[in-house]
Every structure is written in C-alpha cells, then in structure tokens.
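The following record pairs a protein chain with its ligand, benzoic acid.
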Amino acid sequence: MAVRLGDTAPDFTADTTQGTINFHEWLGDSWGVLFSHPKDFTPVCTTELGYVAKIKPEFEKRNVKVIGLSVDPVESHVKWEGDIEETQGTAVNFPMIGDPDRKVADLYDMIHPNANDTMTVRSVFVIGPDKKVKLTITYPASTGRNFDEILRVIDSLQLTAGYKVATPANWQHGGDVIIVPAVSDDEAKDLFPGGWDEQKPYLRVTKQPNL
Ligand code: BEZ
C-alpha cells in the first residue's frame, strides 16, 4: 500500500549502521527525511550519500534528521562507507538502514516491480514532528536526486506549517509568499500588517512573515 501525504509514517524497528533503531523514537520531536537508494556499491548512490553527508549541517539547522536505506545488509553499507568517504571526501555521518528482508522497503512501497523487482527506487519521504508524511518524491535509479531541492521544500513546509501562506513556483527562503485563499482580507490585515500586493483576489503576494 502506498504511503500518501498526511498518512502517519509507518513505524518500524531496524538495524542501521548506527545500531538498532525504532523509527518513531529515533525521530523524537524532529523532522525526518527517509530516503532509499537502489543498491550499495553503485555510482549514483555513492555521490548522493556523499552529498547528503556534506550538507548534513543544513538539515540540522532545520531540525531534520536524515536516514538512508537500501535492501543490502548493514555490513555491506559499512564497507561501502569507506568508498564514499574516499571518493566524495566526506564520511557518511547519518544512519543507513540495512533492509535485506525488505521489511521497511515494503512498508514504504519503495520497490516498484515494473521498474525493478529487486532494488528500491529512489524514494524520499519528509516526515513532520507529528509523524505525518509531508512530502513524497520518487526518482528512477538512473537519476540522482537534487538534495538542495529537498532542503527548499523543507523550508516551505516549515514556513507553511506556522503561517497561513503558501510558496510560489521556484520559491526560495526569503522570497515573497502567497496568502492562502482561505484567509479573508479582514483576517489578512491582522496577520500581514505590512500589507500585500493583490494581483487577483485569489493571488495576494506578501513578504515572507518570519524573516
Ligand atoms: C547507481 O546508483 O548508480 C545506480 C543504481 C542502480 C541502477 C542504476 C544506477
């Protein structure tokens, strides 16, 4: 069964490169990113994991924990981490789940048999502190992910969780935002005292409120 936006992220206990974890306990009050890679000792995955390790401080700044997964065992991940550090210049500094029996992969519907029946696709799940799924993205094995985009979406998710705004196309932190249509002009006067640019009654653009 697919995991959909708004669902509670399925909980599990699994072996990782940093010991056995219970997923929900491990998340605690943090946001989380759970992402799968198709197979250990493969080139695109090697670059992805190196990049995520490099930008881990950006996730930490946003109170986000990251955790990887493939259907290879933990011992294989540990051997591969040496290659990742050697070729990408950064040691893997977050846990990677070993899932040889595909328990977690099946829970999260990460194996798409018509693409490949043994490897996971490149899934990304962003999970909020309420354990609800806020974002799902699926890339094919042949395309490495854009983790800067995932940080950008997390910025939008965290902003829109706290303010009655939405973010426009290609928005980046600091850019103007949109007042959600459910907010009346009267309410908007209180919420956005700096005012807004009304381009259409349903398109009211205002400054990012939490700067
Ligand atoms: C890779 O990570 O390079 C990869 C993994 C599976 C299939 C194709 C590429």
